[in-house]
Amino acid sequence: MIKFLHSSWAYLLILMYVVTIATYFLGLIKNKVFNYTREFRLASFTLIVFTIQILLGLATWFTSHYFEGITHGQMGTYMKNATDRLLVLEHPVMMIIAWLLTFYGYNRMKKATSSKKIYMAIIITYGMAFLLILIRIPWHSWLS
User: Fold this and answer.
1) 137 burial class (0-12, 13-18, 19+ CB within 10 angstroms)?
2) How confident is the model over 83-95, as a mean pLDDT?
3) How many CA atoms are closer than 13 Å to the CA of 130, on its beta-carbon side?
């Protein structure tokens, strides 16, 4: 059940990143004044969606057979198989890094003094986080 929620919630997360980055990019190009009610909430909601995704992912990881295998000394075996390595190490670590980038960008946005700096803070940090997410999604699981 948790794995299903984690996989399903990822679609919402990807949608939120696309909408947030596109909105902030358009705001930067059009030299719009930052709208605290709409655009601030959009970045906040994206961070909240990602936080829920991270919590679901951690719950999935700690209840998986991989975690049980790690506690029984099977990490070396997992590292020899590319698919297992992706699910055991690469995906979780990259998603945590992406979440930290998102959190950092959100805090930079709150401290920025001009609309341009606010837009740039989100575009750069959320963009890098989104790229990390897309790189380390286990596409073989999603597309099958």
Assistant:
1) middle
2) 90
3) 21
Q: Which residues contact 61 (CB under 8 A, 6 or more apart)?
A: 67, 92
The mean per-residue pLDDT over the stretch 97-105 comes to 97
The sign of the torsion formed by the CA atoms of 85, 86, 87, 90 equals positive
Is the predicted pLDDT of residue 141 greater than 80, yes or no? no
Q: What is the mean pLDDT of residues 57-73?
A: 87
Q: How far apart are CA 106 and CA 99, in angstroms?
A: 10
Cα 121 to Cα 48, 76, 125, distances in angstroms: 18, 39, 6
What Å distances lie between residue 86 and 68, 72, 79, 103, 141, CA to CA? Answer: 16, 19, 9, 24, 11
What is the mean pLDDT of the segment spanning 78-87?
87
Task: For residue 81, give the DSSP letter.
Answer: S
pLDDT at 143: 63
Short-list 140, 73, 129, 84, CA closest to 104: 129
Each domain of the chain, given as residue ranges in start order, spans 2-142
